[in-house]
Amino acid sequence: MPLYRDEAIVLRTQKLGEADRIVTLLSRTQGKVRVVGKGVRRTKSRFGARLEPAMMVDLQCYEGRSLDTVTQAETLASWGDVLARDYTTYTAATAMLETADRLTEEREPSLQQYLLLAGALRSMAEGTHDPGLVLDAYLLRALAIAGWAPSFHDCARCGAEGPHRAFNLAAGGTVCPSCRPPGSAAPAPETLRLLAALLAGDWEVADASEVRHRREGTGLATAFLQWHLERGVRSLRLVERRDPTADPGAGQGAGQGAGRGAGHGAGRGAGPVGPGVPAQGQVTPLRVEAQA
Amino acid sequence: MYEGVVQDLIDELGRLPGVGPKSAQRIAFHLLQADPADVRRLVSALVEVKEKVRFCEVCGNVAEGEKCRICADSRRDGSAICVVEEPKDVVAIERTREFRGRYHVLGGAISPIEGVGPDDLRIKELMTRLASGEVTEIIIATDPNLEGEATASYLARFLRPMGLRVTRLASGLPVGGDLEYADEVTLGRAFEGRRLLDA
Ligand SMILES: [Zn+2]
Ligand SMILES: [Zn+2]
Fold it and tell me: Which regions form coiled coils (chain B) (predicted)?
């Protein structure tokens, strides 16, 4: 039976039979692969946490007739473990994993998508930037690699040099006055600058951005993604956005300060803010959060 | 494909969790050849379970009345609630005989990729139970995988400011195994959750 070995990031897992899982991974050299992890749901499985989403593994499989089977997996990075300890980073990371799943094809190598996802997960786990910004940067760049690079400066239709005020999804981004289709939006210039910075990886500009522009940018980045993907990305609906102005320390850090399995407090003295808490506030898409 | 009712049976069986088309076929032909009395017993068990068993209005566990056996038992400790994903987890913990409190069944774990968010779980019902002030400890026993961990983080975030003692079941080395086979995350958790040895 032919064996192969690759470095890969776990995108998602689905239950199979009694104790197995189908594991979808994005691999460095072979693109997306779907393999069977035998017995991984048993508490004594030798794979342990290695085949959980957002883990990077050195993977060895043997080829089967329909699905390949994992024979060995060694951890290269356990980002998933860190990200799940904070609900905000968990939802943002899940949206990245689902997007990667949707933008790649089985057995079609995509080293760029692989490296982009690895970098984004690492950055989110290290907590150096607001997870919402890391997610939006990831979405824009993943789209660009897929061939749908949005324009945030020059005209997406004729190439006329920007900045332009009008923005149109179908046209591919900012449009000049003569190309502007009716019904184009007019986002704040700062929002367009933020999105351009996220696409280019200019974190100095991105980190310094204001909340209202981040919020508007998120709307545009996700709209772009949903426009290009037939069925939307499901996880995006549940992504929690943090308000970095609520607490100077809050925009940072998934793993660092958070205690074991505890996540962050719901804000000092704020009381319970869970969803559907009787007679309490609903969860807003942009949760105000402070570190416990 | 088979004729009419046989194919209908195969289709119905194939909709059960963990049953693929091949298994569905095998079960269907097993039933065709089985003693009619055996099949009738199976049918009545299925009908009865749907008629009699419902979900406990307090904790969401399976129950034959309005309350499950555990919620109805006045000897159970009402100050501690163990939060689990599924009714089968209640059974697993009950087998240990370690826990004398009550349970709360969420009905799953938060899984954005499957479209399951906090509002789809029985979190609101948990909050209602906490309103009386009788409960002082919450033990979060969701599965030790990514979704279970994230669900625990979510719950802890608003349970802790309520002044409750919130604990999470320890993750660590399986009893009876060798240390060298443990993966890094499991071994790391075992370190975090290490305990003092009493002299
Ligand atoms: Zn133009
Ligand atoms: Zn009950």
Answer: none
46-85 in chain B: CB under 8 A from chain A: none
The pTM for the full model equals 0.81
Q: Which CATH superfamily is domain A82-241 in?
A: Recombination protein O, C-terminal domain (1.20.1440.120)
Query: Which among A246, A225, A244, A252 has a CA at the least distance from the CA of A236?
Result: A225
User: What's the gap in Å between the CA of A103 and the closest CA on chain B?
Assistant: 15
Query: Rounded to the nearest whole angstrom, what is the distance from the C-alpha of residue A170 to the centroid of ligand 1?
Result: 14
Beta-carbon separation of B157 and A48 below 8 A = no
* A232 contacts on B by Cβ (under 8 Å): none
Model pLDDT for residues A56-87, shown as the tens digit of each residue: 999 999 998 888 999 999 999 999 999 999 99
Contact predicate A253/A290, CB 8 Å = no
ipTM score: 0.78
Q: Which CATH superfamily is domain B5-52 in?
A: RecR Domain 1 (1.10.8.420)
CB contact (8 A) between residue A48 and residue B186: yes
User: CA-to-CA distance for A253 and B91, rounded, in angstroms?
Assistant: 37
Q: Is B21 on the interface with A (CB under 8 A)?
A: no
Query: Which residues in chain B touch residue A94, judged by CB atoms under 8 angstroms apart?
Result: 112-113
Helices (H), chain A: 79-83, 87-103, 111-126, 131-145, 189-200, 203-207, 211-228
Task: Quote the tokens at residue A20.
Answer: 């197995």
Fold of A1-77: OB fold (Dihydrolipoamide Acetyltransferase, E2P) (2.40.50)
Q: Which residue has the tokens 């399951």?
A: B116
